[in-house]
Amino acid sequence: MGLGQLTVELIVGFFSLLLITRVLGKTQITQLTAFDFISALILGELLGNAIYDDDTGVVKILFAVTIWGLLIFGIQLVGQKSITLRNFLEGKPALVIQKGVIDRQALKKNRMNLNELQNLLRIKDVFSVREVEYAILEPNGSLTVIRKPEFDTPTLKDLNIPLNRKSLPMLLVSDGIILNDNLLTISKNESWLKTKLKKQGFDNVNNIFFAEWREEDGLYVLEKDQ
Hints:
Layout: H1 3-24, H2 34-51, H3 58-81, H4 83-90, E1 94-98, E2 101-102, H5 104-109, H6 114-123, E3 132-137, E4 143-147, E5 170-174, E6 177-178, H7 180-185, H8 190-199, E7 208-214, E8 218-223
Antiparallel strand pairs: 1-2, 1-3, 3-4, 5-6, 5-7, 7-8
């Protein structure tokens, strides 16, 4: 296989995987179920073998990636409409601690031991099972924990402290570039932004590394290193 052909196949493979990833959704690594992980692994293996096989051309690479991508997409589509299939492919959440008591049968069914349970609890900043009222083992292997009331962090409502609503921070300038879509989100325009920047002594947007707006705090600006 010549370098030219290898380069073309790598480029085609890269953009094919990128397209498939965009089509199949934005599931994060921490949200992957066992089925998602195996599907992605096989897709990468198919592409890798196809690229370095002298008898495999660009058409076959596209064909393999497309067929596998369509299979995954089809399974996801059917899974959205069928709870039975979804539970079969992804699994169901399991209640491993109920009313402060560890369910040994649930642990055994999910092939989990006490050390693994304690590790997942520590990830949630829980260092004693006695603090837990309920714990749910999610299909992706993470643990959702509800603490007992006496160990739970008090809220402002519990402490009778007046609530101050917070707005969503919005990035308006990134590395000298004005983000117009974000300006539209907060119903502002470039003229308004430049006026705000000038009030803080910034005359040139190109010199700004980071500018963030929050309703209750105003504009926060970081200048580029000179």
